[in-house]
Design goal:
The protein has 297 residues and is an alpha/beta fold. It has twelve helices and eleven strands.
Length: 297
């Protein structure tokens, strides 16, 4: 039966496919050419399919062999990749989880800086918008969208959420607009770029307009809508329109002038992005170092 075929048989098959030569496959695996031939023959018998066509010393894969090779190679590549966390080479391995927007807009540069400063530590970043994965205790550190409380994580504020519409200077220049003088009704009439809400507490442009003291009377209809917040910000940077900016996450773009705030009505949501450390276990030295690095960024 298929489930009883040993993994070693597939490793021999993989080597034979890569070299198209049983002798060279045997040398890589430190077994004889005859042993390779026997294992391939046994695999063919167990699968009930011919895997190689033999013409003298020349080998070629049958259609069944080609399909199996593609699957075996993908599986072995996956297994090799999965073992990387256990091959630290003396480096401490720590894991941190964060949402896609935080990873793309805020965290990536800081992790690069940390890597340059900490050659003995490897960091694994889990990027996900699933709350259960973000808060999983399998992580050493987490960055959570929160009001600051969590039963399993001690949270420290990294970025307060203050939302304001933003656009590129090029977009405003083409429209002949002055950013600071724009009213809500005028902003609502521009090319709006929105994003999907993966969390009931997230606020997109529609909700932002609705929370203003004097919301626009016209229906809010975005021209573009993206699956992630970071894609919406990228579109605004390209000059495609107006999106809702979280000041803390896009601070570098605002500081450089790549994006400009519109109007004078920022919204403090009461939420923010918090760095979490485990409530019921101690951090490793490397995780503690990364924790301090991120708090000081």
């Amino acid at each position: 039966m298929l489930e009883r075929i040993p993994l070693e048989a597939f490793r021999v098959f993989d080597a034979a496919c890569r070299f198209m030569n049983f002798s060279r496959a045997g040398r890589e695996l430190h077994i004889t050419q005859a042993a390779v031939s026997r294992r391939i023959q046994g695999l063919e018998e167990q699968l009930g399919a011919k895997l190689f066509t033999r013409r003298g010393r020349n080998l070629s894969l049958t259609p069944e062999g080609e399909r199996l090779f593609q699957r075996v190679r993908a599986t072995l590549d996956y297994l090799e990749e999965s073992l990387e966390p256990f091959r630290g080479g003396g480096r401490e391995i720590i894991s941190i989880a964060a949402s896609g927007s935080v990873s793309h807009l805020w965290l990536a540069k800081r992790l690069k800086d940390f890597d340059n400063e900490s050659p003995g530590i490897s960091v694994r970043l889990l990027t996900t918008d699933a709350p259960s994965e973000l808060a999983s205790e399998a992580n050493d550190l987490v960055i959570l969208y929160s009001t600051g409380e969590h039963p399993r994580w001690n949270l420290t504020l990294l970025v307060k959420e203050v939302l304001v519409p933003v656009a590129s200077p090029g977009y405003l220049a083409r429209r002949g607009l002055e950013a600071a003088t724009l009213k809500a009704e005028e902003i609502a009439a521009l090319d709006l770029i929105d994003y999907e809400r993966f969390n009931a507490h997230w606020i997109s442009l529609r909700q932002w307009f609705g929370r203003l003291p004097h919301p626009p009377k016209a229906r809010i209809t975005p021209r573009l809508s993206f699956s992630t917040y970071s894609l919406a910000v990228d579109a605004a940077l390209r000059g495609e329109g107006v999106t809702l900016g979280s000041r803390g996450l896009i601070a570098e773009d605002l500081g450089s002038g790549a994006l400009v705030e519109l109007g004078t009505e920022p919204l403090d949501t009461g939420y923010g992005y918090y760095l979490g450390m485990p409530r019921y276990r101690s951090l490793s030295p490397g995780a503690a170092r990364l924790h301090q690095h991120l708090l000081g960024s």
